[in-house]
Each structure stands twice: as structure tokens, then as C-alpha cells.
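Let us walk through a complete example step by step. Step one is to write down the protein sequence. Step two is to encode the small molecule, 2-oxoglutaric acid, as a SMILES string so that its atoms and bonds are unambiguous. Step three, shown after the inputs, is the structure prediction itself.
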Amino acid sequence: MESESARFFFDHVFVFDPATPVDDHYWHQDVPYWPVEGEHIVSFWLSLVHCTPETAALKFVPGSHRADKFYRPNGFDGKSLSQDVGERGALAVDASDQFVDHPPPPFHEDPEAHGVLEFSYEPGDAVMFHSRAVHSSGGNNSPNKRRVAYSARYIGTDARMTLRQGVFQDPALLPDEDEAFTVGAPMQSRKWPLIYQSV
Ligand SMILES: O=C(O)CCC(=O)C(=O)O
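Step three: the predicted structure of the complex.
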């Protein structure tokens, strides 16, 4: 991240059971789903199994992190998501100027034109990517192999709290109720331990 500090933000596990193809890809950027903005936001996706593009290996649109606008986040079942963040919802900012007015293009339909990067991963292989980088997989077409991956997110010095009106916000990603939440403030919470500080 080229950041003077790093905090652990959150992690989760992504599972594709055998025979779960996706009708379409789920191209998306991560950061619009999260209550944060800045350049110092990075994801670490680690495959726990052997996987290939046929078995839901994560792929990327290179350079997509340089776009100055986001694709609007949707639920991964195609539905729009929103969650109640309680009184903090009143702090949400009008972020309509941050979004393009169309969903991500179907990059997989012409992967060469978009330079789509596809990989095969061995257990323990990982990719680190910018939170604006567009990524997806094509689902798991194996009849008998599960795809399991671990994702960890880190935030650095320039990361700032935000809440975008009208888009998915997960209350679990906000500071604890007894902690300050101020739009525009540095990301600080007991939930996000400092793991690195340059001297
Ligand atoms: O594992 C997947 O299929 C999705 C992972 C992802 O979108 C992420 O780690 O940000």
C-alpha cells in the first residue's frame, strides 16, 4: 500500500460448492461495499485449494483500479442490498457522483480485449489487490471439487470512514457502538488492530 501504517480490517471465507456455475460473472470492486475510502485499502485473497478458471479461480481486469468512478454494488444474487446501520444511517453522504450509471460490463465475454488476467492457484497461493480492482470468477463447474478461499482486508494511513447513501453497508464493518464514527475521520476502532507502523 506504500502506507506508513496498516490495520487489519476484516476477513471472510468464500466457498463455491461443487457444481455451482454462475450464470454470469459477478464483476465488482470491493470498496463501494465498505464504509471506507482512500488509496490504502488492500485485499489478500488466498486459495485454500487447487483452483482454475473452471473452478472459480479469481480473475481480474488489470488497470481497473485507476478508474475514478465505482460500479454500483449489488447483491451477488443480482438484488440490491441494504442493511440497517441504525442511527449512523443519518450520517450517510450523497455519493451519487462516485458511481457510473451502469453495471460492470461483461468483461468475460471478450477477455482478450480487456486483458482479463486469469490464474490457476495452488493451495496457499495468494493475490493482493487494490480495493478498486474489478474482479470475479466464473463459478465452480467441477462436479466434485469445492473451491474455498480466505480473504483478508487491510487499511492504511489514508483510509477514511464514510457511509454512502443508498448502497449496501454492513453494520459489522463499522466501529463498535461505543466508539466514534465520523465521516472523513481516520479509520480507528478496536475492531481494526494496528499491525504495522513505520518508525
Ligand atoms: O472468492 C470469490 O469468488 C470472491 C472473492 C472476492 O470478491 C474478494 O475477495 O473480494
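Step four is interpretation. The chain has a mean pLDDT of 93.
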